[in-house]
User: Which sequence fits this backbone?
């Protein structure tokens, strides 16, 4: 089941084509940090993490924080934010939620956080209890029930993850699910956290 206007970022034939290279890419990701000087490649179910050559300002579109209060992304300035756009009806989204939860447990703090953003039409009423039932312990979800922020972010499918820097700029994005607590994913986040300007 899919929601109107959304494309789940997953395709069996694409997965088949990628299956042979995913392991090699992930295995070499940590090495790539030092070798190439850029972010390590991070391949998920659909594509790869895409760093932006020039950071872009994050949209100022309002959404609801986990307590139902209107908020904007600039409220998170001061640290890196991995904003994960998801929905309860999106199977790849649900698949990656536990790894996002573990990533938050491993690296979350003042300098980095994972922030979920549900686009379910019933908002927090549906998404909050869903996370509890799934056993997600370290994350709460914000809500974008009209998908206004998702559209402003240019989200083409679900899940989509957007990395935002401490100045409120988008520095990279990924379409598709990933093992976010894998060595490759942690290396990606640490690449940004270890930059001199992030210290």
Assistant:
């Amino acid at each position: 089941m899919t929601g109107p206007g959304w494309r789940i970022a997953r395709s069996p034939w694409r997965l088949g084509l990628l299956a042979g290279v995913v392991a090699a890419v992930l295995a070499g990701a940590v090495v790539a940090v030092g070798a190439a000087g850029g972010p390590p490649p991070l391949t998920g179910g659909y594509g790869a993490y895409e760093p932006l050559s020039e950071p872009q300002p994050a949209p100022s579109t309002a959404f609801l924080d986990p307590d139902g209060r209107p908020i904007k992304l600039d409220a998170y300035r001061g640290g890196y934010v991995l904003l994960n756009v998801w929905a309860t009806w999106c199977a790849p989204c649900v698949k990656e939620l536990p790894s996002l939860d573990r990533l938050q447990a491993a690296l979350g703090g003042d300098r980095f956080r994972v922030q979920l953003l549900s686009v379910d039409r019933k908002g927090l009423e549906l998404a909050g209890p869903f996370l509890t039932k799934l056993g997600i312990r370290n994350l709460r979800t914000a809500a974008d029930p009209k998908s206004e922020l998702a559209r402003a972010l240019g989200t083409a499918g679900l899940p989509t993850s957007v990395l935002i820097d401490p100045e409120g700029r988008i520095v990279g994005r990924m379409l598709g699910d990933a093992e976010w607590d894998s060595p490759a994913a942690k290396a990606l986040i640490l690449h940004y956290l270890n930059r001199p300007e992030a210290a």
User: Anything to note?
Assistant: The helical segments are 12-36, 91-107, 124-134, 148-152, 183-193. The chain has five helices and eight strands. The beta strands are 50-57, 63-64, 70-71, 80-86, 112-118, 141-143, 160-164, 169-175.
